[in-house]
Specification:
Elements (H helix, E strand, L loop, with lengths): L1 H16 L3 H5 L6 H11 L17 H15 L10
Length: 84
Amino acid sequence: MLRLTSEAYRINLAHIFDPYLAVHTSAIEPVPHQIAAVYQEMLARLPLRYILADDPGAGKTIMTGLFLNSRQRRRPDKTESGAA
């Protein structure tokens, strides 16, 4: 039981030591512009208040998935900030 608890704790804190954790743990290989969009633009501007618009085939779905995965791992709890 201790091993399972410590592994869960390690996974919960992994994003602190590997900021690109979503990229390294996903089954996709994003291209550099997708990584830059997610980690340098989208995650840097929270709360996110703009539209992700790009050319067809540019990987908007991949960028959205990486953003959601990274955001979920970085949230301290499961409630949105500002909720009372």
